[in-house]
Amino acid sequence: MYSADNHRHCFLFKGSTPEVLSGFLRLCEHLTTPLICAHDVEPYQQLAPLQNTAFRTCSFKQARQELGSSHDAILVDLTHGVSASALAILAGTVRGNGIFAIALPEEDWLSVVDQNLPRYLPWPYQSTQIDSSFKRFLLARLEHDSSPFIVLSSLDHSHQPTPLPALDRLNENAPLTQEQTAAQACLLSLKAKSYVLIAPRGRGKSTLLGDSLAKMLQAGKKVALTAANQTAITTLKKRFDEQLQHSAVTAEFPFFAPDALLSNDTHWDLLLVDEASSIPLPMLMALNKKAKHCLFSTTDYGYEGAGKGFGIRFCRYLEAQSDGCLLPLERLTLRRPIRWGENDPLENWMNDCFFLAPEQNTKSPLSVAKHDDAVLEYSVIKGAEWLTHTAALSQTFQLLVSAHYQTSPDNLRWVLDDPSVSTYLSRQGDHLHSVAIVTEEGPLPDELSSAVLQGTRRPRGHLIPQSLLAHEGIEDAGQYRYWRISRIATQANQQNKGIASELLNHIEAAAKQKNANEECDFLCTSFAATADVMAFWQKNAFVPVRLGTTKDQASGCYSLMMVKPLTDKARQRAAHWHHSYLANLTINLPRDYSDIDAHLADKLAMPLVENPPLITTRFNESRDENPPVCDTISDKDKKDLLLFVHHHRPYLTIRAQLTRLVQSKISRQQLTVTHPDYSLLNALIRQPANKVDFSAFQLNTKKQVEKHLKSVVDALLSM
């Protein structure tokens, strides 16, 4: 069964765990230690002592740790749970002529409870309530005539697997390919400030980086390497070591963890960042300042689902940087596979199944422009309906992957299996122009809402009502129904034509058509706040009600929640929520959000016409060190502070309320410099949250800080 074209071998085992393990290990008899992945690996671990062939195990949660590794054989057991991301990750680590196997039970797999499904379901749904459309979709792909998987059933005793021959030892120092050599020549010329190497899996990025790192050291350059996970750079390090082994240069492998590199005062000639899309965007921006030249390597599509978005967001940032006569950015690509042969059946199947590869057909519906006189047609698809609309599903995910930095293979399961999710599409004939994924959230029972408000419960899903309860203290937030636009995207050549806004209008009309028992109160959205994205939502009459207190790790932006009320009562509540948001923003924006640019800050602080202009100065004007003075504290402020004192309301969400409390006590001379905590309170209301030095007040741990602050705030409220 040795494949001359270096393709991987695909098998679908059906049987019990012992039967599957026995058949798989028989195939792997001449291969190096195989890997077995499952939702629960304990049954395999229990069988290990009885086997003649050793193997390793990892759970779905641990699959990401295999990035950068190379395996002769992998078995993924899907019997009791499915992880699309684990499948995509592990398939990319199997070398040419190796084995990628999937295990299913002999009985009806669709009837087996999926233990991995709950993570995709909102409260109160359980796995036993859901007939998984994603499992039906995956099974159909596995059993299709075009599937590369050879079925090996425990019931078919006449067809026993034959061990595959041993694989040739990998040549860690093989010459670079013509494509790699061309990319390396561009890098070593150092004509650009930044380089981005984006390529699919198995194209030799790690080999190229390891080889280039060694060559730059040999040329006397000061170089460094960083990556989110050191275990994922095994291939890179091997190539580096092999190159230096035959060189007169002796040097340690120059690897630094990202945080350690940022704290190092050294400025390098060249910094290489491997799998850069798995590192938070703010950290990437900081790393870009640590060297004269930087190379950021990432995967174009596939396992991490962030490569496209990395190219969209981060490359825009790099293109805006300038450094003298250097080009701001040069893009490098590798297309020919090295780890396996071209046109590999497993790679083709994975890309087709999970829509991981870009559409190659230039006449794709995605590239067809909308005629101005054409009427857009609207439709909504959800759950099992997608199984008969696979062409639309492919178009939808191609569009989402190209537009959103966090679209992953797991999102496919979410869209197919979450009963609260509907996908709205605007099309011209067969041509998709815009898509929006809508999640229905709320209402929550009073008892559950109270627990969320107090921070003792965190049910799955229901992002908007949960955050308004837990972070804003809005006691009635759980009573309403919300339609959250969780993703919205328009074809690049169709943007700025009002197509997405027209789709939102259609969604609003659909929300209003619900009967009285299911009446939707709010359309809403939560996104990484930038001025241009916020402008889109403001144009469509959405108003901000909450600004996050910390930056999102993937986007490097603060999250912003906006709502659009659809009923008279909702309009009253939205105005009230927005007024409270502005009152807190007046205090927090100049003090705690100094890293927000002035253009976005002005948009965040823009009041509704019916609201008083609480913020009267532009954010980019010179700012006083003192917070805006407010000598009154409302009943809502008191409730928020009591939730912090007696329950689990996060400290960062009550900083504006605490400021008003302290100022009101000072104005009434109930708090003076003689108070033992005056200096601490003064620091809290004047300094940014991340700049307060609690150790100066003998508070050295987070637990000590929280306990003391609760005691101090409680005492102030009792004055």
Automatic annotation (TrEMBL):
This is tRNA(Met) cytidine acetyltransferase TmcA. The gene is tmcA. The lineage of its organism: Bacteria, Pseudomonadati, Pseudomonadota, Gammaproteobacteria, Oceanospirillales. ATP binds at Q180, R339. Pfam families: GNAT_acetyltr_2 (PF13718), NAT10_TcmA_helicase (PF05127), TmcA_N (PF08351). Residues 421-567 form the N-acetyltransferase domain. The keyword tRNA processing applies. Keywords: Acyltransferase, ATP-binding, Cytoplasm, Nucleotide-binding, RNA-binding, Transferase, tRNA processing, tRNA-binding. It is an enzyme of class 2 (transferase).
